[in-house]
Amino acid sequence: MNASDIINVFQILVALILIAAVLMQAKGAGMGNIFGGTGGESFRTRRGVERVLFRATIGLIVVFVGLSIAAIRV
């Protein structure tokens, strides 16, 4: 395996974890909310696990973009 193959494997793993993280954040979101439906939402802050999951998702996005750029350069 060369460097390009290793980067591609890591990129696939990060993508799968990122998909799972995004889906875990979508709890309570119905089909109506997907297309911009109103469900009487109110603003609330993220606390505890929600905050950790949100920040981990941002970190995974940064890693994914970094791997994508690295895959282009290799």
Polypeptide structure, described:
It is a single chain. The protein has 74 residues and is mainly alpha-helical. It has one domain (3-26, 46-73). It contains 3 helices and no strands. The chain has helices at residues 3-25, 31-34, 49-73. The longest helix has 25 residues, at 49-73. The protein is elongated and about 50 Å long. It starts with a helix and ends with a helix. The mean pLDDT is 83.
Number of strands: 0
Radius of gyration: 16 Å
Number of domains: 1
Mean pLDDT: 83
Class from secondary-structure proportions: mainly alpha
Instruction: State the assembly state of the protein chains.
Output: single chain
Helix content: over 70%
Biggest β-sheet description: none
State the order of secondary-structure elements, H for helix, E for strand.
HHH
Based on Cα principal axes, name the global outline. Answer: elongated
Low-confidence segments: none
- Discrete helix count: 3
Q: Report, as a whole number of angstroms, the end-to-end distance.
A: 13 Å
Strand content: under 5%
